[in-house]
């Protein structure tokens, strides 16, 4: 029993996966709502649904090469993972459309088609796999359908590349470019990618292909091939890039301003130049001007607060520039925090940049700081609320999702109840026995629908040690009621305790719930294995009359540690 408490908690989950998902959900909900309100919108709530599309729903693959489909579903616009499915109690099924706009049928797992969680893989894909697919998730209450995906498995032709699986890239002669193999889902041995030019010459092995300086002869088709293995069989995944090169651009290009914030002093004189790299273009072939909003800044003729001067040409380091000055004869307060825009117009394009004047030492960051501080305060409050009310939040989340952890493990009982008593106090432990045999089943069984295994009630008299182990193994939780500070070797239930703790700490087949019925002043007086459980987060303290009501924190914490049971409905309390 030398395993540390941290290792023990990690082995049994300690409900951290569920708590973290719930905390993330609430933090996202509050911050999302706040940001929407700040932008003048309102939200009606977030629910599980489809993710926003970030790519084509068309998936192409080559005949007899692996194919890969991914089910994309979200909670509050955050992509669900396989671990989230387990926490939310969701199961996934993949379907294929038999005929266009016709009936669908669920896919049956086979050696070649593997549906693992959110991923459907074909090892390999064949032409007959071409069709429309979608995924569906179900948690016993809600059904969520994912987006449709069209899979096209294309037969190999005589050409060295397949047009549908060719991805275009464009580069400029003299510049650098790095080619990445597109749409490769298997990253484990990506450094073993083999690159071919025009399907003949093996030019490189590695995750990418780098050209430091492109030349005309670098144009062509580049094929990357990755070899993957499954169950001892090797498969090739092939993708092709078409690299097209163009001559260096010699068009005018705006280089200043782009998005500039300039600190100024009220009353000062300031000139700001809009600069364009001219290339081979003549000044007469372009129009360069300044504007404030939609109104052009006037030309400089007489003394004016702000005006634009004539364009002029400058040469620096053998490079031609066209310059249009914006002149502030005297910076005034009404000119601050306004967008002064420089616009470049040619026969082919229209580009612009802007400047914003800000008073020195009083940059407009107060609003940003206020917003960030507000968001930070909200996040801290939500985080504290999630810690303080994590039990209530978890129970509410279970009710909303209809989560049920008891459907598939084929266990008969939800918890084995073990009352620890020494032989000396066995006859005088009426209060503890009334709690273990009366109040506990009255609340958990009659009020919340759990099924408990009580030694005195459910185990036949004269049962052997193997019988006790059998009944413990039939339970999802082990409830240990600690009724005395010190449990020595004379404890009447020592064998049950050791058997249960062995299943908890060694076999890891059952999760514990330790009810501290009476305060423990000296933890070291307990067996070391029981100390380990007591130090975990799976401990609940009985506080006498304050804990009797089923609405008390005591019963909420017990339910939180018990397995989630779908369809739980609490009847009217029998207790005050």
Largest sheet: 6 strands, mixed
Helical content band? 10-25%
Second rung of CATH, namely the architecture of the largest domain: 3-Layer(aba) Sandwich
Assign the CATH class of the largest domain: Alpha Beta
CATH topology of the largest domain: Rossmann fold
Poorly predicted segments? 1-17, 20-50, 569-576
Per the principal axes of the C-alpha atoms, what is the gross shape? flat
CATH homolog superfamily of the largest domain: Toll/interleukin-1 receptor homology (TIR) domain
> How many E-type strands?
34
Question: Over all CA atoms, what is the radius of gyration?
Answer: 35 Å
Number of helices: 11
Secondary structural class: alpha+beta
Give the termini separation. Answer: 42 Å
Number of domains: 5
Indicate the mean pLDDT.
77
Assess the beta-strand content as a share of residues: 25-35%
């Amino acid at each position: 029993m030398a395993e540390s408490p941290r290792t023990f908690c990690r082995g049994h989950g300690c409900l951290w996966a569920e708590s973290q998902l719930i905390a993330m959900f609430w933090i996202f909900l509050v911050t999302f709502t706040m940001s929407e309100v700040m932008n003048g919108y309102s939200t009606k709530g977030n629910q599980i649904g489809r993710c926003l599309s970030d790519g084509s729903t068309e998936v192409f693959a080559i005949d007899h090469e692996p194919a890969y489909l991914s089910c994309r579903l979200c909670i509050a616009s955050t992509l669900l993972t396989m671990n989230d499915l387990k926490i939310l109690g969701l199961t996934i099924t993949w379907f294929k459309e038999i005929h266009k706009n016709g009936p669908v049928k669920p896919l049956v797992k086979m050696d070649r088609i593997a549906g693992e969680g959110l991923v459907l893989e074909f090892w390999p894909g064949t032409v007959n796999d071409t069709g429309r697919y979608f995924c569906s998730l179900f948690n016993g209450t809600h059904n969520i359908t994912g987006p449709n995906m069209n899979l096209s498995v294309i037969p190999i032709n005589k050409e060295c590349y397949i047009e549908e699986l060719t991805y275009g890239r464009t580069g400029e002669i003299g510049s650098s470019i790095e080619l990445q193999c597109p749409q490769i889902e298997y990253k484990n041995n990506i450094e073993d990618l083999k690159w071919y030019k025009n399907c003949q010459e093996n030019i490189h092995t590695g995750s990418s292909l780098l050209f430091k300086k492109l030349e005309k002869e670098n144009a062509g088709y580049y094929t990357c091939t990755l070899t993957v293995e499954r169950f001892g069989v090797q498969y090739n995944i092939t993708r092709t890039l078409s690299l097209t090169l163009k001559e260096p651009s010699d068009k005018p290009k705006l280089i200043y301003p782009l998005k500039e914030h300039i600190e100024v002093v009220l009353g000062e004189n300031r000139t700001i130049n809009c600069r364009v790299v001219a290339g081979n273009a003549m000044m007469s072939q372009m129009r360069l001007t300044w504007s404030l909003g939609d109104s052009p800044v006037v030309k400089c003729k007489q003394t004016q607060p702000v005006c634009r001067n004539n364009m002029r040409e400058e040469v620096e380091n053998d490079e031609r520039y066209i310059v249009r000055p914006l002149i502030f004869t005297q910076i005034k307060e009404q000119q601050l925090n306004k967008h002064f825009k420089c616009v470049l117009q040619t026969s082919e394009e229209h580009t612009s940049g802007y400047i914003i004047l800000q008073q020195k030492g009083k940059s407009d960051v107060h609003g940003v700081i206020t917003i960030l501080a507000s968001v930070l305060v909200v996040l801290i409050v939500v985080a504290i609320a999630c810690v303080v009310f994590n039990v209530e939040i978890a129970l509410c989340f279970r009710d909303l999702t209809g989560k049920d952890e008891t459907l598939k493990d084929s266990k008969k009982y939800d918890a084995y109840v073990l009352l620890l008593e020494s032989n000396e106090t066995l006859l005088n432990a009426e209060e503890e026995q009334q709690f273990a045999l009366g109040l506990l089943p009255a609340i958990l069984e009659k009020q919340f629908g759990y099924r408990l295994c009580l030694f005195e009630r459910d185990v036949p008299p004269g049962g052997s040690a193997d019988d006790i182990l059998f009944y413990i193994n039939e339970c999802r939780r082990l409830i240990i009621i600690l009724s005395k500070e010190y449990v020595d070797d004379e404890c009447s239930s020592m064998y049950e305790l050791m058997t249960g703790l062995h299943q908890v700490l060694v076999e890891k087949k059952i999760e514990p719930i330790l009810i501290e019925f009476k305060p423990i002043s000296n933890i070291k007086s307990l067996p070391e294995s029981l100390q380990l459980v007591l130090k975990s987060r799976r401990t609940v303290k009985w506080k006498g009359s304050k804990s009797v009501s089923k609405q008390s924190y005591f019963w909420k914490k017990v339910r939180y540690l018990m397995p989630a049971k779908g369809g739980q409905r609490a009847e009217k309390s029998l207790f005050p």
